[in-house]
Amino acid sequence: MEQQFNNKVYPIYKNDIGVKEIKIGVKSFMCMGCSPPNDHPHVFLTMGNENYLLCIYCSTKYVYDHTLTFRYTNPPECYAGDNIIGEKNE
């Protein structure tokens, strides 16, 4: 089951290792490309009804995997942190 947020907390993912595809456990998130100073604009992305999405800046393919939580990715090096503006709904 997908974790739900109050539209104010989103995980941020990065692709420092240069893989073509990253599996994530949420459908709404932020992509930063690579770590600073090589990052692109940090963009909010949402998959909607789809189970994958390409970042418009770095072309990383994000694939939804319901077995992952928002802080875990496959490959595991791609979670960068949270864009925390509010709190997670319980």
Detailed description of the structure:
- The chain is an all-beta fold.
- The chain has one domain (9-84): q5lls5 like domains (HSP40/DNAj peptide-binding domain), CATH 2.60.260.40.
- The protein is built from no helices and 7 strands.
- It has strands spanning 9-13, 21-24, 28-31, 43-46, 52-54, 61-64, 79-84.
- Strands 4-3-1-7 form a 4-stranded mixed beta sheet, with no helix packed on it. A 3-stranded mixed beta sheet has the order 2-6-5, with no helix packed on it.
- It is globular and about 30 Å long.
- The two termini are 13 Å apart.
- 23% of the residues are buried.
Q: What keyword list fits this structure?
A:
single chain; 90 residues; mainly beta; HSP40/DNAj peptide-binding domain; four-stranded mixed β-sheet; three-stranded mixed β-sheet; globular; disordered C terminus
Shape assignment: globular
Task: Tell me which CATH architecture applies here.
Answer: Sandwich
- CATH topology group: HSP40/DNAj peptide-binding domain
SSE arrangement, N to C: EEEEEEE
Work out the helix count: 0
Radius of gyration: 12 Å
Level of helix content?
under 10%
Counting DSSP E segments of at least 2 residues, the number of strands comes to 7
**The CATH C-level class name:** Mainly Beta
**Which structural class should the secondary elements be placed in?**
mainly beta
Number of domains: 1
| Average predicted confidence as pLDDT | 88
Strand content: 25-35%
